[in-house]
Design a protein that fits this description.
- The structure is a single chain.
- This protein is mainly beta and 786 residues long.
- The chain has an 18-stranded parallel β-sheet that branches. The protein has an 11-stranded parallel β-sheet with strand order 32-35-37-39-42-46-50-52-55-58-61, with no helix packed on it. Strands 10-16-15-12-13 form a 5-stranded mixed β-sheet, with no helix packed on it.
- The two termini are 45 Å apart.
Length: 786
Amino acid sequence: MARMMLSRNSRYALVLLAFLSVFSFSRAALAAQVVGYIDGVDNIYGQYVVVGWACVVDQPTPINVELYVGGPPGTGTEIGNAYPANFASEPGVAAACNSTGTGYRYQIPLAYSTLLTYGGKAIYVNGVSPDGQSSAILAQSGTFNVPAAPATGSLTIAGTPSPCIATAAGPCTSTITWNAYGPAQIWLQVDGQPNETLFACNASGTQAAPWIQAGHTYTFSMYQATSCSLGGRGAAINSVSIQGVPVISGNPSPCPMNQAGQCTVTINWNSYGTSQVWLQVDGQATDKLFACGIGGTAQAPWILPTHRYVFSVYQASSCAPNARTGTALGSVTIRGTLNGNCGAADEVMTGTAPSANLCATGTPSQISGAGPWMWSCSGADGGVPAFCVAPSSITYLPQNYAGIAAGCGWSAAQDVAPCIQAALNDASKTGGTVSVPQGQWNLGNTLSLPSNVTLQGASAATTTLQPMTANTSDFLLLTGRNIADVLVRNITFDGGGPDFSNPSVVAGVTTGNYIMFDKIAVQNTHGIGLLLQGGITNSGVKNSSFINIGNHWKTTLQRADRIQGLVFCCGTNTNNFATGNNFQDIGLDALQPANQVGFTAMYNAFNLENNQRTLVPSPDYASGIFPLQSSNVLIGYNTITGAQGNGIDAPGLQNSAIFNNSITNSGGAGLGLFLGYDGTTQSTNVTVSNNQIMNNEQWGPGCFMGGIALGGGIPSYIDIANNTVTDTQAVKTQRYGIHLVEGCGSIISTFVQNMTISGNNLTGNSIAPLDNFFQYCTQNCIYSGL
């Protein structure tokens, strides 16, 4: 502050001279007299302090003083009272007090808020006797002014280095430096946790943080303070965030193969100076230089299946191959994943079981059936399987049964069900194929599938089966019970429209083994599109479409009229699949695999926006994939957009993996792991990795407040890794990256155990990366990475 300050001895001499020359009174007159003086405004340890002395004449007991600005008591503003005038004082002050005491000085700190509000106003100090019976404005009151507040830009906090690189040797050390006005407390918040811890306290200073770990964000916030006690923290002034980063990372890992049998991985490394990245393959004794720079990004587009690639970063004096020094600062291992793919024998009609060209990649299983023939191609190193089929070339034409089979007449206006049924019955005796020609064909009753048969059309675009108005079958167009080795392909099943009078399931199988639907279309239904129930094994649907299913609600606007698209459920169901399918405009859950063991949901596309959230009031809405109380489920490479509820809604999911999916614009959470509907089945041992989960929570504030939500029960052994969970919208709707549900209906709170969150990008959500994780993760909880 710009003012002339006298030395303390000079000030004391002037004080005594003033009292001796100006005042002339008896000791009796001074007996209850409050006297004192304002020496000025000092800067003590970075804070402005009003200093002076005060006492009651002839009394050794210290008194308190009060601070006013803008005028004395009565006209000025009181800033504070009960400031003790008991600091050590000099003999000259004691003489002025006509006392033998040694503590009559006061120090009144001026808070930053006082400077902001009252800068430039005159300072008044009022002395109050110990008994409160007398008081007096001290000499020099009105002489000094409250200093102006320092510019906010001068109150700084910084951390270096930032980002802070953690290596194989351990965490990184970042040095925090701050400059404040007066006492300041520095508090630390990690990864957006709701709680902070006191890191340091001083008006200015430097302190090391030697524990910065990769994948975490450390926010150091500077607060104005009255002291260094926990209760002395005031308003926040400034903050700095330090990002801990790994010295090297690679993504995706594992690396899934493309159709050419290769995968591209992106290697990122961080360094403060020149560094080299070296590659070792399958533990070979020698490695080779892969990349060099002061940190950077490089791609490796040649990752092959079943191999191990170790990328290690070293300090280097240059980019010459012989310039690396010391041991590796860190490494990342990438493995190539082999997905199964069907070979040339897939979908080719044959008279005998195929024996060659079964799998383009992967290992073929045993072949099932006597026509059609089915097998799978398993992946390796975490790769996903493919499901393959070869129809029999022995062909039966239903139109040839006209006039022969009972009730069979073949024309577009007739009920052709008796013709097709007669052909199916004959074909099952030889494992043959029933080929329905192009056209729209009416069914007055459902078709009953026998075992060992293929039912096919010319193509789903040109062959359609549809119900006659009088069709009252329990399964509208197609059914089968206790059957095996059946293929249905290249046919459209049209349900007659969302308001068709018969709301039954359009097509379904109850209890079956090796049942495959391939390249079919199910559309325009009142009821469920396709139902596989009651003990289904080694069966599934691929390369098919489900459009405008279960939408009678659009007429009635009743939530009960919302119906599912493709359902697997009920009984003991193992090794089933839904791959490569397209779902659009489904009334309720598009794909529901319930009570499944070993289910695969891969490469499906869901486009589900149908304005249901606006039109139908409901406490819940439809999901894209609804794996209910299932285990050993693989959900990967699906694209889900516009689900009216949660994108993937998984109550009671166990021993499963959800990976490489894109989930956007869901009404609720992008992905939810919940307690099973039976109230006892916990979600446990689930890996969620490499998913893109963005811009969800579209129906507005609800229970599931995040891209990923966990709710109910005690989820355990949940590993959430390398996902991007963010919101890129101008008006954000997705509140948290990962949310543990509390206070939602029957879900009071969600306690999790043995949960790991690592390597994710959870930035960009409207509120925070995480919610409730640190409060409700009760055992073995690991968090690293945004």
